[in-house]
Amino acid sequence: xxxxxxxxxxxxxxxxxxxxxxxxxxxxxxxxxxxxxxxxxxxxxxxxxxxxxxxxxxxxxxxxxxxxxxxxxxxxxxxxxxxxxxxxxxxxxxxxxxxxxxxxxxxxxxxxxxxxxxxxxxxxxxxxxxxxxxxxxxxxxxxxxxxxxxxxxxxxxxxxxxxxxxxxxxxxxxxxxxxxxxxxxxxxxxxxxxxxxxxxxxxxxxxxxxxxxxxxxxxxxxxxxxxxxxxxxxxxxxxxxxxxxxxxxxxxxxxxxxxxxxxxxxxxxxxxxxxxxxxxxxxxxxxxxxxxxxxxxxxxxxxxxxxxxxxxxxxxxxxxxxxxxxxxxxxxxxxxxxxxxxxxxxxxxxxxxxxxxxxxxxxxxxxxxxxxxxxxxxxxxxxxxxxxxxxxxxxxxxxxxxxxxxxxxxxxxxxxxxxxxxxxxxxxxxxxxxxxxxxxxxxxxxxxxxxxxxxxxxxxxxxxxxxxxxxxxxxxxxxxxxxxxxxxxxxxxxxxxxxxxxxxxxxxxxxxxxxxxxxxxxxxxxxxxxxxxxxxxxxxxxxxxxxxxxxxxxxxxxxxxxxxxxxxxxxxxxxxxxxxxxxxxx
Length: 586
Known about the structure:
By secondary structure, the chain is α/β, with parallel strands linked by helices. Helix content is 31%, strand content 18%. The strands form 5 sheets. Strands 1, 2, 3, 4, 5, 6, 7, 8, 11, 12 and 13 form an 11-stranded mixed beta sheet that branches. Strands 14-15-16-17 form a 4-stranded antiparallel beta sheet, covered by helices on one side. A hairpin with a 2-residue loop joins strand 5 and strand 6.
């Protein structure tokens, strides 16, 4: 009996020790992604007019990548590639037609259930997984509440934030953004139809047409029905898309923008506090610095770059508060921390003459442009004290898709073997045990269209970029496509280059001087090598159901997330994060 008690006591002592040892081997993982942040907006990447001390300190204490690349230049496809480690078109999450990102919470498209995210694989390894902030990967498929695309169906144990994205429509005083062109056409048509009915009801027109009263009522009813359907699907954009959810429940509809930053920070602190004794993966998907650039009074008017600068500095403060919470709970040294943006700054974002988007440094182009560096070159900062060298810079080409295999292997998981992965484990490169990045070639797609490809020649250290397609900039756009929202991927708004444009990024990062056979002896060889790599990559492509088709993008009332009574969905979140339905209202 005494021996049994001794063994039991040893077992009780050993079990927590083993858990602690296992946790020490497998770090916590904190991933922070900004929205529409330009690489040139951060002090650690050369900005000397915006204050970003917390992100700069993160770079000083870790490894900074200078050639870190998004897999797509818009939110939905870039994040799909980030979550899965594969190009978004492999899962049908990039454009094959006109739509390049999800437009509605009540669309049926989204990240397919058969796709595997890093959250799902780390959940299987015993990690507590959470996402706070923006999702933009869809919600439901066939019925409200099936949540087939929801974060909880993709390996996350908890979700708090926006299932959609922060857009201008979320602000009552900003111009429309979601499907603005289509909404303008439908609005004009709706008004014309209503005017026609009123004209018919005007007596003389009725007399001349001799319409029976049933026809008049029918026409009026059709006009009213059309106007109502237009208003419910397009006029209610703020109520339909700008909502907060906790897990699968809507807690605020429409959301209060001025309180969003504080709520996201509150949730991040609570997650860290609740999970400090077990391995966790937390993905903080910031709403900053996407339009409409709502900042709290503490930061308004404090920067040198207007509303955008204020929002950047508030974002940096939020990052600092999250990092401070790590330290308060003793988690800093055992947490693998990563900071990035989903793509480049939005050059077309303007309010009259004022620029509202970010700065992409010396790099040409911006959001929406898959070939030019300004659209896809993003911050890449990693910190893991004691494991990664502090203050190190890496100039090798890497990708947001590399995060998937990196964190999965950090957490003790295995990457899928039944599908093509485009990302590679970065740990050897970050630690300095590998001299080169695992990518020799990287391919830059705009929707399903290949716009450019790069070749990193490891022996010489030179990085070449071949452009097959480029967008046509507005004559006064300073490298932007004003009047289009973002630059198109195909059609009359792009130029196909034959022969392709060739740049050497290692000497010309601004892509200002295209090379010719006369100026570059290796011109033909480079084009041939990259062309062969493109052919090989295209051979790996398999068709996937288009998640961004018109049918999947369209607003469907039966899929609309709602609290309260549909269609008058309304609730307000209290200070504790709950949701209290309000009286129905317009």
